[in-house]
Protein backbone atom coordinates (compact mmCIF):
# COMPACT_ATOMS: atom_id res chain seq x y z
CA UNK A 1 0.00 0.00 0.00
CA UNK A 2 2.69 2.50 0.98
CA UNK A 3 4.65 1.71 -2.16
CA UNK A 4 1.54 2.40 -4.25
CA UNK A 5 0.92 5.70 -2.43
CA UNK A 6 4.53 6.79 -3.00
CA UNK A 7 4.28 5.92 -6.70
CA UNK A 8 1.07 7.89 -7.08
CA UNK A 9 2.53 10.90 -5.23
CA UNK A 10 5.58 10.86 -7.50
CA UNK A 11 3.28 10.62 -10.51
CA UNK A 12 1.50 13.78 -9.34
CA UNK A 13 4.57 15.87 -10.15
CA UNK A 14 4.79 15.25 -13.93
CA UNK A 15 1.00 15.32 -14.22
CA UNK A 16 0.80 18.68 -12.49
CA UNK A 17 3.72 20.06 -14.50
CA UNK A 18 2.13 18.86 -17.74
CA UNK A 19 -1.18 20.58 -16.99
CA UNK A 20 0.58 23.81 -16.02
CA UNK A 21 2.81 23.67 -19.11
CA UNK A 22 -0.10 23.18 -21.52
CA UNK A 23 -2.11 25.99 -19.94
CA UNK A 24 0.92 28.30 -19.86
CA UNK A 25 1.64 27.59 -23.55
CA UNK A 26 -1.95 28.33 -24.54
CA UNK A 27 -1.86 31.60 -22.65
CA UNK A 28 1.08 32.78 -24.76
CA UNK A 29 -1.10 32.75 -27.89
CA UNK A 30 -4.23 34.32 -26.43
CA UNK A 31 -4.72 37.87 -27.77
CA UNK A 32 -5.56 40.81 -25.56
CA UNK A 33 -3.12 40.18 -22.73
CA UNK A 34 -2.70 42.40 -19.67
CA UNK A 35 -0.20 44.67 -21.42
CA UNK A 36 -2.59 45.26 -24.33
CA UNK A 37 -5.46 45.91 -21.93
CA UNK A 38 -3.40 48.38 -19.92
CA UNK A 39 -2.28 50.16 -23.09
CA UNK A 40 -5.89 50.50 -24.14
CA UNK A 41 -6.88 51.90 -20.75
CA UNK A 42 -3.98 54.35 -20.75
CA UNK A 43 -4.72 55.42 -24.30
CA UNK A 44 -8.30 56.12 -23.41
CA UNK A 45 -7.38 58.00 -20.22
CA UNK A 46 -4.59 59.95 -21.90
CA UNK A 47 -1.92 59.28 -19.27
CA UNK A 48 0.40 56.57 -18.11
CA UNK A 49 -0.48 55.47 -14.61
CA UNK A 50 1.89 55.14 -11.76
CA UNK A 51 1.72 51.36 -12.05
CA UNK A 52 3.41 51.48 -15.44
CA UNK A 53 6.23 53.96 -15.08
CA UNK A 54 6.15 55.12 -11.49
CA UNK A 55 4.87 58.57 -12.47
CA UNK A 56 2.15 60.14 -14.59
CA UNK A 57 3.69 60.81 -18.00
CA UNK A 58 1.40 62.46 -20.52
CA UNK A 59 0.92 60.48 -23.72
CA UNK A 60 2.48 61.88 -26.84
CA UNK A 61 0.45 61.75 -30.05
CA UNK A 62 -2.05 59.42 -28.36
CA UNK A 63 0.45 56.52 -28.13
CA UNK A 64 2.80 55.12 -25.53
CA UNK A 65 6.51 55.58 -25.93
CA UNK A 66 8.91 52.65 -26.22
CA UNK A 67 10.07 53.24 -22.64
CA UNK A 68 6.50 53.11 -21.36
CA UNK A 69 5.85 49.87 -23.20
CA UNK A 70 9.06 48.41 -21.82
CA UNK A 71 7.97 49.48 -18.32
CA UNK A 72 4.61 47.79 -18.76
CA UNK A 73 6.21 44.57 -19.97
CA UNK A 74 8.60 44.62 -17.03
CA UNK A 75 5.71 45.28 -14.64
CA UNK A 76 3.88 42.17 -15.76
CA UNK A 77 7.02 40.07 -16.17
CA UNK A 78 6.85 39.84 -19.96
CA UNK A 79 10.35 41.19 -20.38
CA UNK A 80 11.67 37.64 -19.82
CA UNK A 81 11.54 34.69 -22.24
CA UNK A 82 8.53 32.33 -21.81
CA UNK A 83 10.66 29.41 -20.59
CA UNK A 84 12.26 31.59 -17.95
CA UNK A 85 8.87 32.82 -16.79
CA UNK A 86 7.51 29.28 -16.64
CA UNK A 87 10.52 28.05 -14.65
CA UNK A 88 10.18 30.96 -12.21
CA UNK A 89 6.48 30.20 -11.81
CA UNK A 90 7.11 26.52 -11.08
CA UNK A 91 9.72 27.39 -8.45
CA UNK A 92 7.30 29.81 -6.79
CA UNK A 93 4.44 27.31 -6.91
CA UNK A 94 6.67 24.69 -5.27
CA UNK A 95 6.87 27.11 -2.31
CA UNK A 96 3.11 27.76 -2.60
CA UNK A 97 3.84 31.33 -3.62
CA UNK A 98 1.03 31.87 -6.13
CA UNK A 99 2.06 35.38 -7.13
CA UNK A 100 0.09 38.62 -7.15
CA UNK A 101 -2.95 39.53 -9.20
CA UNK A 102 -2.43 42.07 -12.00
CA UNK A 103 -5.71 43.84 -11.31
CA UNK A 104 -6.82 43.09 -7.73
CA UNK A 105 -3.58 44.30 -6.09
CA UNK A 106 -3.67 41.27 -3.80
CA UNK A 107 -1.81 38.01 -3.73
CA UNK A 108 -3.57 35.07 -5.37
CA UNK A 109 -3.53 33.19 -2.07
CA UNK A 110 -5.34 36.08 -0.35
CA UNK A 111 -7.93 36.18 -3.14
CA UNK A 112 -8.59 32.45 -2.86
CA UNK A 113 -8.90 32.73 0.92
CA UNK A 114 -11.26 35.69 0.53
CA UNK A 115 -13.54 33.94 -1.97
CA UNK A 116 -13.38 30.52 -0.33
CA UNK A 117 -16.27 30.96 2.18
CA UNK A 118 -18.75 31.52 -0.64
CA UNK A 119 -17.66 28.47 -2.61
CA UNK A 120 -17.43 26.41 0.57
CA UNK A 121 -20.99 27.34 1.49
CA UNK A 122 -22.31 26.42 -1.94
CA UNK A 123 -20.23 23.30 -2.41
CA UNK A 124 -20.38 21.84 1.09
CA UNK A 125 -24.13 22.24 1.49
CA UNK A 126 -24.67 20.86 -2.01
CA UNK A 127 -22.47 17.86 -1.21
CA UNK A 128 -24.12 17.09 2.14
CA UNK A 129 -27.70 17.55 0.97
CA UNK A 130 -27.11 15.59 -2.22
CA UNK A 131 -25.89 12.54 -0.33
CA UNK A 132 -28.50 12.87 2.43
CA UNK A 133 -31.29 12.90 -0.14
CA UNK A 134 -29.93 10.62 -2.85
CA UNK A 135 -28.79 7.64 -0.78
CA UNK A 136 -32.09 7.07 1.12
CA UNK A 137 -34.09 7.82 -2.03
CA UNK A 138 -31.97 5.48 -4.15
CA UNK A 139 -32.30 2.69 -1.57
CA UNK A 140 -36.07 3.15 -1.44
CA UNK A 141 -36.29 3.07 -5.24
CA UNK A 142 -34.22 -0.13 -5.35
CA UNK A 143 -36.33 -1.87 -2.70
CA UNK A 144 -39.55 -0.77 -4.44
CA UNK A 145 -38.26 -1.24 -7.97
CA UNK A 146 -41.07 -1.14 -10.53
CA UNK A 147 -43.63 0.27 -8.09
CA UNK A 148 -45.61 3.49 -8.46
CA UNK A 149 -43.27 5.16 -5.96
CA UNK A 150 -40.29 4.25 -8.15
CA UNK A 151 -41.98 5.63 -11.26
CA UNK A 152 -43.14 8.90 -9.70
CA UNK A 153 -39.84 9.65 -7.99
CA UNK A 154 -38.01 8.73 -11.20
CA UNK A 155 -40.00 11.29 -13.15
CA UNK A 156 -39.44 13.95 -10.49
CA UNK A 157 -35.69 13.29 -10.38
CA UNK A 158 -35.32 13.36 -14.16
CA UNK A 159 -37.31 16.60 -14.43
CA UNK A 160 -34.96 18.18 -11.89
CA UNK A 161 -32.00 16.87 -13.88
CA UNK A 162 -33.20 18.19 -17.25
CA UNK A 163 -33.79 21.72 -15.92
CA UNK A 164 -30.42 23.54 -15.80
CA UNK A 165 -29.52 24.87 -12.33
CA UNK A 166 -29.27 28.40 -13.76
CA UNK A 167 -32.81 28.23 -15.15
CA UNK A 168 -34.16 26.78 -11.92
CA UNK A 169 -32.37 29.49 -9.97
CA UNK A 170 -33.92 32.15 -12.18
CA UNK A 171 -37.37 30.65 -11.62
CA UNK A 172 -36.78 30.59 -7.86
CA UNK A 173 -35.71 34.22 -7.91
CA UNK A 174 -38.77 35.27 -9.89
CA UNK A 175 -41.12 33.33 -7.62
CA UNK A 176 -39.59 33.78 -4.17
CA UNK A 177 -36.77 36.33 -4.43
CA UNK A 178 -38.70 39.52 -4.92
CA UNK A 179 -39.34 39.10 -8.63
CA UNK A 180 -42.90 39.17 -9.89
CA UNK A 181 -44.44 37.24 -7.02
CA UNK A 182 -43.22 36.80 -3.41
CA UNK A 183 -40.22 38.41 -1.71
CA UNK A 184 -39.64 35.61 0.77
CA UNK A 185 -35.89 35.29 0.34
CA UNK A 186 -33.17 37.97 0.11
CA UNK A 187 -31.11 38.56 -3.03
CA UNK A 188 -27.33 38.69 -3.08
CA UNK A 189 -24.57 37.77 -0.64
CA UNK A 190 -24.26 35.13 2.04
CA UNK A 191 -25.48 37.37 4.85
CA UNK A 192 -27.41 40.60 5.30
CA UNK A 193 -26.01 44.06 5.95
CA UNK A 194 -27.02 43.87 9.64
CA UNK A 195 -25.39 40.48 10.18
CA UNK A 196 -22.91 41.73 12.80
CA UNK A 197 -25.69 43.19 14.96
CA UNK A 198 -27.71 39.96 15.12
CA UNK A 199 -27.67 37.37 17.88
CA UNK A 200 -26.08 33.97 17.31
CA UNK A 201 -29.41 32.39 16.45
CA UNK A 202 -30.22 35.38 14.24
CA UNK A 203 -26.93 35.02 12.38
CA UNK A 204 -27.59 31.35 11.67
CA UNK A 205 -31.11 32.12 10.44
CA UNK A 206 -29.89 35.00 8.29
CA UNK A 207 -27.16 32.84 6.73
CA UNK A 208 -29.49 29.92 5.99
CA UNK A 209 -32.11 32.30 4.60
CA UNK A 210 -29.60 33.77 2.15
CA UNK A 211 -28.28 30.45 0.84
CA UNK A 212 -31.65 28.66 0.59
CA UNK A 213 -32.36 29.51 -3.06
CA UNK A 214 -28.85 28.99 -4.51
CA UNK A 215 -28.47 25.68 -2.65
CA UNK A 216 -31.85 24.49 -3.90
CA UNK A 217 -30.87 25.32 -7.47
CA UNK A 218 -27.49 23.57 -7.08
CA UNK A 219 -28.79 20.41 -5.39
CA UNK A 220 -31.62 19.82 -7.88
CA UNK A 221 -29.20 19.29 -10.73
CA UNK A 222 -27.13 16.72 -8.80
CA UNK A 223 -29.96 14.50 -7.60
CA UNK A 224 -30.54 12.36 -10.68
CA UNK A 225 -27.04 10.91 -11.17
CA UNK A 226 -26.42 10.01 -7.53
CA UNK A 227 -29.96 8.69 -6.98
CA UNK A 228 -29.84 6.42 -10.03
CA UNK A 229 -26.31 5.29 -9.15
CA UNK A 230 -27.45 4.35 -5.64
CA UNK A 231 -30.50 2.52 -6.98
CA UNK A 232 -28.52 0.54 -9.56
CA UNK A 233 -25.81 -0.44 -7.07
CA UNK A 234 -28.37 -1.67 -4.55
CA UNK A 235 -30.37 -3.49 -7.24
CA UNK A 236 -27.20 -5.30 -8.30
CA UNK A 237 -26.53 -6.41 -4.73
CA UNK A 238 -30.16 -7.40 -4.11
CA UNK A 239 -29.97 -9.82 -7.04
CA UNK A 240 -26.81 -11.55 -5.83
CA UNK A 241 -26.79 -15.14 -4.65
CA UNK A 242 -25.94 -14.38 -1.02
CA UNK A 243 -29.20 -12.43 -0.69
CA UNK A 244 -31.24 -15.42 -1.85
CA UNK A 245 -29.28 -17.60 0.55
CA UNK A 246 -30.00 -15.24 3.45
CA UNK A 247 -33.70 -15.25 2.60
CA UNK A 248 -33.70 -19.03 2.41
CA UNK A 249 -32.29 -19.12 5.93
CA UNK A 250 -35.27 -17.07 7.10
CA UNK A 251 -33.47 -13.82 7.90
CA UNK A 252 -35.74 -10.75 8.10
CA UNK A 253 -35.71 -8.47 5.05
CA UNK A 254 -34.65 -5.49 7.17
CA UNK A 255 -31.62 -7.38 8.48
CA UNK A 256 -30.68 -8.54 5.00
CA UNK A 257 -30.92 -5.00 3.64
CA UNK A 258 -29.03 -3.11 6.34
CA UNK A 259 -26.55 -5.75 7.53
CA UNK A 260 -25.55 -7.41 4.25
CA UNK A 261 -26.70 -5.48 1.18
CA UNK A 262 -26.02 -2.01 2.60
CA UNK A 263 -22.42 -2.78 3.57
CA UNK A 264 -21.52 -4.13 0.13
CA UNK A 265 -23.50 -1.62 -1.92
CA UNK A 266 -22.04 1.41 -0.16
CA UNK A 267 -18.46 0.59 -1.22
CA UNK A 268 -18.60 2.31 -4.63
CA UNK A 269 -20.57 5.22 -3.15
CA UNK A 270 -18.28 5.85 -0.18
CA UNK A 271 -15.14 5.66 -2.30
CA UNK A 272 -16.43 8.63 -4.26
CA UNK A 273 -16.66 10.76 -1.10
CA UNK A 274 -13.11 12.21 -1.17
CA UNK A 275 -13.31 13.48 -4.75
CA UNK A 276 -16.84 14.80 -4.26
CA UNK A 277 -15.95 16.44 -0.94
CA UNK A 278 -12.83 18.16 -2.27
CA UNK A 279 -14.61 19.11 -5.47
CA UNK A 280 -17.35 20.73 -3.43
CA UNK A 281 -14.93 23.42 -2.29
CA UNK A 282 -13.59 24.32 -5.72
CA UNK A 283 -16.32 23.67 -8.27
CA UNK A 284 -18.83 26.31 -7.37
CA UNK A 285 -21.16 27.07 -10.22
CA UNK A 286 -20.26 30.27 -12.05
CA UNK A 287 -23.83 30.77 -13.22
CA UNK A 288 -25.28 30.22 -9.75
CA UNK A 289 -22.76 32.63 -8.21
CA UNK A 290 -23.51 35.25 -10.86
CA UNK A 291 -27.28 34.85 -10.65
CA UNK A 292 -27.42 35.15 -6.87
CA UNK A 293 -24.64 37.79 -6.65
CA UNK A 294 -22.26 35.49 -4.77
CA UNK A 295 -18.59 36.45 -5.10
CA UNK A 296 -16.92 33.04 -5.04
CA UNK A 297 -14.10 31.13 -6.70
CA UNK A 298 -16.10 30.41 -9.84
CA UNK A 299 -16.67 34.09 -10.50
CA UNK A 300 -13.05 34.87 -9.62
CA UNK A 301 -11.74 32.35 -12.16
CA UNK A 302 -14.08 33.60 -14.87
CA UNK A 303 -13.10 37.25 -14.33
CA UNK A 304 -9.42 36.28 -14.30
CA UNK A 305 -9.77 34.62 -17.71
CA UNK A 306 -11.69 37.56 -19.17
CA UNK A 307 -9.24 40.15 -17.82
CA UNK A 308 -6.21 37.99 -18.69
CA UNK A 309 -5.16 38.04 -15.04
CA UNK A 310 -2.62 35.27 -15.60
CA UNK A 311 -1.34 34.91 -12.01
CA UNK A 312 -4.90 34.25 -10.82
CA UNK A 313 -5.57 31.88 -13.73
CA UNK A 314 -2.42 29.84 -13.13
CA UNK A 315 -2.58 30.04 -9.34
CA UNK A 316 -6.18 28.82 -9.08
CA UNK A 317 -5.48 26.15 -11.70
CA UNK A 318 -2.52 24.93 -9.65
CA UNK A 319 -4.54 24.72 -6.44
CA UNK A 320 -7.59 23.12 -8.06
CA UNK A 321 -5.53 20.57 -9.99
CA UNK A 322 -3.42 19.62 -6.98
CA UNK A 323 -6.47 19.12 -4.79
CA UNK A 324 -8.22 17.15 -7.54
CA UNK A 325 -5.26 14.80 -8.00
CA UNK A 326 -4.97 14.24 -4.25
CA UNK A 327 -8.72 13.57 -4.05
CA UNK A 328 -8.39 10.97 -6.79
CA UNK A 329 -5.59 9.30 -4.83
CA UNK A 330 -7.73 9.25 -1.67
CA UNK A 331 -10.60 7.73 -3.65
CA UNK A 332 -8.36 4.89 -4.86
CA UNK A 333 -6.91 4.28 -1.40
CA UNK A 334 -10.38 4.24 0.17
CA UNK A 335 -11.22 1.15 -1.90
CA UNK A 336 -8.57 -0.79 0.03
CA UNK A 337 -9.60 0.68 3.37
CA UNK A 338 -13.26 -0.19 2.88
CA UNK A 339 -12.82 -3.55 1.13
CA UNK A 340 -9.84 -5.55 2.50
CA UNK A 341 -10.05 -7.87 -0.52
CA UNK A 342 -8.59 -5.11 -2.72
CA UNK A 343 -4.79 -4.80 -2.77
CA UNK A 344 -2.60 -2.45 -4.79
CA UNK A 345 0.67 -4.28 -4.20
CA UNK A 346 -0.22 -7.50 -6.02
CA UNK A 347 -0.80 -9.37 -2.76
CA UNK A 348 -3.33 -12.18 -2.47
TrEMBL record:
The keyword Aminoacyl-tRNA synthetase does not apply. The chain crosses the membrane at residues 122-143, 155-185, 207-230, 269-292, 312-331. SUPFAM superfamilies: MetI-like. CDD domains: TM_PBP2. Keywords: Cell membrane, Membrane, Transmembrane, Transmembrane helix, Transport. It is a multi-pass membrane protein. Belongs to the binding-protein-dependent transport system permease family. This is ABC transporter permease subunit. It comes from Neisseria lisongii.
